[in-house]
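CATEGORY: protein folding

GOAL: derive structure tokens
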Amino acid sequence: MDRENPLLRCPRSLPFDRVEADQIRPALEALIESARARLDGIAALAASRTFDNTMGALDTATEDLDIAVSVVRHLEGVATTPELRDAWNEVQPAVIQFYSSIPLNGALWGAIKEYGATDEAEALTGVRKRFLDKTIESFRRHGADLSEEDKQTLEAIDVELATVTTHFAQNVLDATAAWEYVITDESKLAGLPESARAAARDSASSKGIEGWRFTLQQPSYVAVMTYLDDAPVRELFYRAYNARAAAENAELIPRILDLRRRKAQLVGYADFADFATADRMAASGASAAGFVEEMRTKTEAAFQRENSGLIEFRRDREGASAGMEPWDVGYWAEKMRTALYDFDEEDLRPYFSLDTVLEGLFGLCSRLFGIRIVASGGAPVWHESVRHYRIEDAGGETLAHFHADWFPRETKRGGAWMDSFITGGPSTTGFTPHAGFVCGNLTPPLPDRPSLLTHREVETIFHEFGHLLHHCLSRVEIRSLAGTNVAWDFVELPSQIMENWCWDRESLDLFARHYQTGEPVPAEIFAKMSRARTFRAANAQMRQLGFANLDLALHREFDAGQPIVALANRLLAPFVPAPLPEGYAMICSFSHLFADPVGYGAGYYSYKWAEVLDADAFTRFRLDGLFNPDTGRAFRQLILEKGNSQEPVELFRSFMGRDPDPSALLTRLGLN
């Protein structure tokens, strides 16, 4: 290969624009061998064992490989090509096999135990002691004490899991990108707001098509399901969206569930839910399921009242025989909200231009957390719309760099997420800046206007930025305990708490300004928005609890002989506002559960678990003042900076001075 391979020595300015598909395999294979040599060196060390030459060396042994893999995996998710996909699919088994082999390396395991028996190890305190304890626990959980035969079985399971879950994700992306619906008769657009019409017209124009083009990407799909008067077309979209990749992924899900179950049982757990929750706040699958059931019982009555009320609302307008199909729910709920509160979400859109929202968000973070977020040009990007920023401390020290990618593309997977590329932090040689990424699939700009967002899209930005802050403000010296490397049911606290500032008048005025006049949201619209905040809150909660129940049930009780789609639909049925139709197969595009070897598998409950934490923690901001810098610094220092350096409940207590109070969430949702 004549040209230099940028993946071999990823600089701090990550080479997103220079990675070619044919460079991926040779680079990752070389980095695997380099990392393996470092690990072998730790195991074979002849000198007396110390924290630095054993545990510290272990913490950094795979860093170059970690960064290169994160770059490749990232590009496959946001700017995929057939060549890039093939290259990643080809080398991924070797990557997963290597990572899986680390806790199965008997010599390395012996070195860790040898260090653990030293006087220095006995005297460890703080984050270093936690790292040793967590490493020993993790090695055991991942098979360090297995026989050689079982270790080989476990490695094979991990490789197959990674391969199958990658194919699941790629099938969803392909199915989403392949579907479109074009309307050529303008009268068929009845009900759609002007913003959705303009976006569909621009989408058609970009493809050289006459008319209005709609897709299954979120901005397009949500607009159709919420506003379009034509019920048969809404049904068409609903069925297409909830049948994405149904044929392909219905075959993959049982394999994924079986592989996860086999892995869990191989290392001594009853099922994958117990394995996944063992190092989380819930501690067991039964505890997580009990939490979901408790929240369901507290929500059920309000859920039934909301659904009866919606049907009555429709019957008052269309007659006593009117029912409610699932593709009607969002449409009629929006009409009911408009009638009850005289509030239309579209009234807010002109006040939420993306640039103004980001400017306000950055200003809010400056006031609360004592940081500056500065646009930084010249960094490599993977698409012309991607932006790059630098985060500085009050004294000017660079804490982190991050990219932001906000708009949908056919080469980019759906949803919104945050990821980390480089985990920096303090060390004996100074502070190394972090590097991360935040992503959405938001309403894109049009030729005659900027990106104008819904309020829900604004919440999405704040949510993902909370994850990013958790990574970028970390000050933990141990890389593997830094940032978002925390218990999965704690990781959503920093993200979900940020959404609260999207509802306060004073904070809204920081970023909600009319894109043409600069005027803030009128008092009348804000009052309507506030009154409507808890509209159908029980339905929103039951939706999340339904997904959590489905997730836990599949990972605790699934029998490979059961048809997966039919089983999933039966499990979801008590949590939905209208009966699921024939052909419904949402489970086949449930990327949270099946697009990663672990992901949110047996962990979807964590959204609600962490929402309990965030609702309670936000009461301190309410009491002290939403912009109180002392409270903001406390949250930064006691939560955001701490990563996994202490038990999550200890971090929560350090900020709140007590254990979590579940009633705060029910109060916020108007359910108690």
Summary: The radius of gyration is 25 Å. The chain has a mean pLDDT of 96. The CA atoms of residues 350 and 516 lie 8 Å apart. The longest strand covers residues 398-405.
